[in-house]
Amino acid sequence: YPYIGAQFSESKNKTLVFAHNIPCKLADYQKRSEDDKQKDSWANCIEEYTYCHGNWTHSFRSFVKGAVALASDYNDDYDTELGTKKRIDDYINSIAYVNYIQDFVITESSYGIASRSQIELSQRINNELLRLLGITHCICWGKYVYDYIINQKSVVILKKIPLEKRGFEISQIELIGRKINILKIYHPSMPSFGMYNEQTHEIFDYFCNLTIAST
After folding, report:
1. H helices present in the chain, as ranges
2. Looking at the DSSP assignment, which residues form a beta bridge with residue 138?
3. From its phi and psi, is residue 56 left (phi > 0), alpha (psi between -120 and 50) or beta?
4. Is the dihedral of CA 29, 35, 40, 45 positive or negative?
5. Residues 162, 139: Cα–Cα separation, whole Å
6. Which of 78, 137, 141, 157 has its CA 20 to 30 A from that of 30?
7. Would you tell me how many other CB atoms lie within 10 Å of the CB of residue 153?
8. Average pLDDT over residues 190-198
């Protein structure tokens, strides 16, 4: 199940952030699947992802820094400067967040590509999430996630907005009867994402204020 922020329903934009997937070694798959039967358990870890330093939180913390336009790192405790913490919490409370691939991806490396059946099942589940949550803005971590959405046969691309920063792109699409703004970002785990980069911050600000004209 997705994490849904406490203020999501009151937010002007209904933003869903799609990370990619969770890689898993074959030997660990059965145990991790058993441990994950509480389907909202990882979604309840959003505070840990946001405020704890660790290799398992690096990507999410990097994403937060870019989205909230921070100029430096923030602490992993509640001594964080009040203004900074409020900006972070306000953003986290306003979004929904989930991995696009709705299963562990079996791989012996730290990187893996989902099977065709996993992709197709995930598309069906996530299209339902987009509909049920009334999503207006969708942020995709990387090219794979972005392509999973816009390359569906049922998608109509209304407009593409080129961006100067490499790895970033915006499409305005129609899917499941909804018009949705889609932002592709460089995966936040990579330096090219530019979590402290002004150009990255400007893209998030532009996307946040983007609407789709009625046709």
Report:
1. 26-35, 46-51, 58-68, 82-94, 116-132, 143-150, 198-208
2. 16, 182
3. alpha
4. negative
5. 15
6. 141
7. 4
8. 97
Q: What is the three-class DSSP state of 210? A: coil
**Residues 62 and 145: beta-carbon distance below 8 Å:** no
Nearest to residue 173, comparing CAs of 135, 122, 124? 135
C-alpha neighbours within 13 Å on the C-beta side of residue 106 = 10
pLDDT tens, residue by residue, 7-44: 999 999 999 999 997 767 777 767 766 666 666 666 78
Contact indicator for 66, 195 with CB cutoff of 8 Å: yes
Amino acid present at 190: M
Structure tokens at 55: 């290799």
First-to-last alpha carbon distance for the chain, in angstroms, is: 33
pTM, entire model: 0.91
50, 170 contact by CB (below 8 A): no
> What phi and psi values does residue 99 have, to the nearest 5 degrees?
-75, 140
50 closest CA partner among 8, 6, 11, 89 = 89
Cβ–Cβ under 8 Å, residues 137 and 183: yes
DSSP state of 9: G
Place of tokens 């913490």: 85
Strand 178-185 with 137-141, pairing: parallel
